Sequence to fold (287 residues):
Amino acid sequence: AAPEKVEQAEAPALTPETPLAKFTARLADIIKLSGHGEMWGVELSSDASHAPTQVVLQKFLRANNGDLAGAEKQLSSALAWREKWQPTKLVSEAFNKDKFGGLGFVTNHKDDAGKNTVITWNIYGSVKDNKATFGDISEFIKWRAALMELGVQQLHLNDITEPLPEDGTDKHQMLQVHDYRSVSFFRMDPAVKAASKETISVFSMAYPELLAHKYFVNVPAIMGWMFGAMKLFLAPATLKKFHPMTSGTTLSTELKGIASSLPQEYGGSGSPVQEGLTVALVDTTEA
Fold:
C-alpha cells in the first residue's frame, strides 16, 4: 500500500495536466536548443510562479489554439529569430531619417478609469521614396521591429503579477494603427508588397497575441491585395481583429474610451501623433 501512495503523490508532478504546465516543463530545453532565453524583454523562467513567463507562454499557446506542439515550435522559431536579430538592441539604434522619419510612433492613452492603452502608429503618407524605405527588406524589418519593441516596452510585461485568466481576456496587448492618407500608387509598388508580405509573416511568428486590434485608416478600397495577403498567414480569429476604414476620424468612434485623447486627425482632441515616442533617427545627409 505504501508504494501505491507514493506513486499517487508523485503523479501530478510527473504528468502535468494543462498545456501551460507542460509548456513550462519543456521551456528549459526549448531555450537551450534556441540559444536564447529572452522574449519581449522578459527573461524566461521555468519557475511556474514567474507570472511574466507564464503570460508569454500563454500568448504562444493562444496563438496556436492551445496546441502545445504548435506553440513550442513557434516559440522556438521566435527565440531563434530574436537571437539572430537582437530586437531589444535595435530600439537604441539610429535609423535613416530620410527612409523612416515620421513613419512610426508609439503613444499612451488613459481612459477615465486610468487604464492605459498603448498604440503603435504607422504613417505611410510620410514615405518619400517607396524603394528607399521598403526596398531593403532586412533594413525595413529591423526598423519595424525596433518600433514594435518600443511599443512592447510600454506594456511593462516584467511587472505582470498573475497569469492570464482562463476566460480568454488579455490586458497585455497593444492597438496598432496603419494610416494610408496621401499614399499614391502604394498598391502597385512591388517593393511595398514584398516588404509587407515579409513583415506579416515574420511578425505573426515573432509577436503573437500582442495586438488586440489593428485599424487600417484612410484606406483606398482598391488596396484589397493587402488584406488578401494577410489571409495567407493569419487565422480567422486573428483576422477578426482587423478593421479597415476609409476615414481616419472613424477611429474615435471605434475607441470611445480613449477618444478624447486621440489626435485630431483621428477624431479626438489630443496631441499630434508626431509628439509620440519614436525610434532614434539620424540625418545621413549631414557631413
